[in-house]
Write a structure and sequence with these properties.
- By secondary structure, this protein is an alpha+beta fold.
- The chain contains three helices and nine strands.
- The protein has helices at 2-23, 124-136, 174-181, and strands spanning 40-46, 52-57, 62-69, 72-73, 82-88, 91-98, 116-121, 152-157, 170-172.
- Strands 1, 2, 3, 4, 5, 6, 7, 8 and 9 form a nine-stranded antiparallel β-sheet that branches.
Length: 187
Amino acid sequence: MKLFILSCFVFFQSLFLSAQSHNNYNVFTNRIASFSKPATILYKNVDAKGNGFIEFTNSKKQVLRFRLFNHNVKPGLCSIAFELYYYEKNDLKRIESLDINGNLIGCNIKLNGEAATEYVIEKPDLYLKKKKLIDAAEGNIDMKDDSNEKIIRVKLFDQNNILIKEKKATYISSKTYWDYTIRMSWP
């Protein structure tokens, strides 16, 4: 009888620990040293098989996002496993692409193989006007590429976090920046 009770206890304990480990995705945030803790779930879309994605946030206005497959982090293109977004007020300031171990990782499908991108709003009043139009349409707006208006400049960094020197400054459109700000795309 004691053996039966002990067997039942061990069985239920292992089930509990297994279920707990699969639902505690917060442990993955510990791989990212630059992501401040404690963190809370901002958005979670994970099915019963442990497939989907999750976003964590913290008091420093950082957002860490990653995909899951079978309850484990699933790297995407260029072996990018995590993306770390930095915000100041409501403006996106920086995105870092990180590998499964939390190290910066460059990607050849990006502008210049960068691992991190910083955003500088050089004309905040003009961007605010355009942002209001985009917000009013909930992002469903066809805007002409306004990158030649030099509203939002990007600075690109390699996997060693060293600025990639460019012959001339790179600008992106207001709509592209807005899409990045709301985390519309995955690598």
